[in-house]
Amino acid sequence: MNRFYRSPGIYWRLSNLYFWFFALLGGLLPYWSLYLEGQGYTYLQIATLMATIQLTKIVAPSVWGWLGDRSGQRVRLVRFGAITGSLFFAGVFLEPGFYGLLLVMLAFTFFWNAILPLYEVITLRTLGKQKEKYGRVRLWGSVGFIAAVAGVGGILELVPISSLPWLLLPVFAGIAVSAFLVPSERGEVKPKAPKGSLKKIVTHPAVVTFFLMNFLLQVSHGPYYTFFSIHLEQHGYGKLPIGLLWSLGVVAEIGLFLIMHRFTRRFSVRQIAIGALVLTMIRWALIAELTDVVAVLIFAQLLHAASYGALHAISVQYIQGFFGKHHHGQGQALYSGLTFGAGGAAGAWISGFLVDGISTSAAFWGGSIAMAIAVVITWKGLRPPPEHHHG
């Protein structure tokens, strides 16, 4: 069973796709809104286009997760998603106008968003009983993100923002190649009839609270993923400093992934969740009001360890605990769709209206309010997943 130790190549082949997948996010998230602004789109149009990245997460992971669970061909589906997503992104080079670009983004992200939930299942299955190694594998996603943010940010200091799609081409190539290095799930067979009803799991009050908490968390991230770069640019920050501030958040997230097991031993899921939500609420308020104070902004970005790292780490384990082996793929897909997808898209659109009508700071205050509501809901309803005594 100890494939992980017997073959270090497995570790690198698993880590590789995380690296390139998140490198693409590192090239897109900090700079795509600036690229769209440079192309002359309005704030509401920018919010709509950025929301597509989240919007397709509502449907795509469920469709692909269901296909993966039914067919057992997750590796092939990951490869198909990587190649097809890259081909659709090429539509950006046609400069298709707002509605054309909206279609390109929807098509590209539908296939691209299929990759991660499928891949999370492949990774956890490949690791087998060595689930604690997940952090070390997933870590390379964060490294890829930072490398892309710094690299693209540095180049954009020298070339116009309109060249951004060209800078992303090598990353697409990396995703396509690494998808074909993914270890195949040998002996993967169609699962037997699931134990327990999916409906019963999803309607469990603690699971409803869990999804609601994560939905509000992603609503609060809407202003960050859509307008953080524009907010910083308005306050006089250049492309590279903007990129470095994005990177700092991910560095903090890496640090947390490395020590997260200590927190999970010492604190309950509920305690970690509430602590992280309160810190996230503070983070958005600081970004809204004290953008010009570099030290405060650095501190706010370090809080990304709480607002993304801590909550994502406990969420992955929470889903495993509640959904079990038979519904794992669909549980992962629901988590991605209802939270990152629906929450992220709603947050992007709401922030678009707030920025258009008031200011970028108002959008971050909106995120802070969403977190205050999430703290109350989590305090009242979140319960730990059932214990697996033999796990």
TrEMBL record:
Transmembrane segments: 12-32, 44-65, 77-94, 100-119, 139-158, 164-182, 202-220, 240-260, 332-350, 362-382
Main location: membrane
All residue ranges annotated as the Major facilitator superfamily associated domain in the record: 11-364
Subcellular location: Cell inner membrane
A GO molecular function held by the record: lactose binding
Pfam families given in the database record: MFS_1_like
GO cellular component terms, semicolon-separated: plasma membrane
UniProt keyword annotations, A-Z: Cell inner membrane, Cell membrane, Membrane, Transmembrane, Transmembrane helix, Transport
InterPro entries listed in its UniProt record: HcaT-like (IPR026032), MFS_assoc_dom (IPR024989), MFS_trans_sf (IPR036259)
Membrane topology recorded in Swiss-Prot or TrEMBL: Multi-pass membrane protein
Matches recorded under NCBIfam families: mfs
Protein name: MFS transporter, PPP family, 3-phenylpropionic acid transporter
Naturally occurring in which organism (per UniProt): Marinobacter pelagius
